[in-house]
Amino acid sequence: MGKLTKNQKLALSKIEAGKVYTLAEAAEKVKEITFTKFDSSFDIDVRLGVDPRKADQMVRGVVSLPHGTGKQVRVLVLCNPDAEAAAKEAGADYVGLDEYIQKIKDGWTDVDVIITQPSVMGKLGPLGRILGPRGLMPNPKSGTVTQDVAKAVKEVKQGKIDFKVDKTGIVHASIGKASFAPEAMVDNAREFVQTLIKLKPATAKGTYIKSIYVSSTMSPGLKVDPKSVVE
Predict the structure, then answer these.
(1) What are phi and psi of 117, to 5 degrees?
(2) Confidence of residue 12 (pLDDT cuts 50, 70, 90)
(3) N or C, which end of the chain is more exposed by having fewer CB within 10 Å?
(4) How far apart are CA 185 and CA 67, in angstroms?
(5) Could you tell me the sign of the dihedral formed by the alpha carbons of 108, 173, 26, 191, in that order?
(6) For residue 16, is pLDDT > 90?
(7) Residues 6+ apart with CB under 8 A from 163
(8) Mean pLDDT computed over 88-117
(9) Cβ contact 161:67 at 8 Å
């Protein structure tokens, strides 16, 4: 392990070894141990009691964060001409079809979310090897393949995020910024965890929410008592 920086040492000195925090305490503490010069993300990691290798235990979904993500989300809408005006009016950053498909083929992926219509998905098939690894491939389950592209754009811009459990059974997500008020951080975390609980697979046995950690970009993680999140 490399040498700790001065700020890393300072952050660790403010954390009580082995302490399990309430969500409210953790939100306050994250702000206290964040020393980046930029506005860090507020991140959450939830270990679930599922086996992601089983198709019926793959937890995936979307959540609308009450206070948004705090970041500007660049949205590309790939749609037919009749939907372009509505997509632009809803706040999409880029709107079109064939010209953007060609740009992506040429290596352009400078967006955060791509929204499209079901009738257009056939054209996106060849882009799978480019978009898939970057998490940009539109998917009906995440609401990014829809007839109502304008509504989808508004939701994404207002703080809707999608997530899925990784192969180790953990769900990672950025659910705000370290600059948020602690109350806003708590609200977003609570909404995220409640959404996970609603998605609990019927075949999952034993404890479902095994552990919760919160952190900011480059800060140590803080263990959170799950009971303080779902109360």
Answers:
(1) -100, 155
(2) low
(3) N
(4) 8
(5) positive
(6) no
(7) 60, 61, 62, 63, 171, 172, 173, 192
(8) 96
(9) no
Under 8 Å between Cβ of 24 and 186: yes
Look over the chain and give the mean of its residue pLDDT values, rounded to a whole number.
91
pTM of the model: 0.78
Q: At which residue do the structure tokens 């997509």 appear?
A: 87
d(Cα 128, Cα 54) in Å, to the nearest integer? 23
Which residues make beta-bridge pairs with 164?
Answer: 60
d(CA 181, CA 203): 38
- How far, rounded to the nearest angstrom, does the alpha carbon of residue 113 sit from its chain's CA centroid? 11
The pLDDT of residue 218: 82
Question: What are the phi and psi torsion angles at 142 (to 5°)?
Answer: -95, 5
139-157 residues labelled b (16+ CB within 10 A) or e (exposed):
beebbbbbeebbebbbbbb
Task: Check: CB of residue 201 under 8 Å from CB of residue 57.
Answer: yes
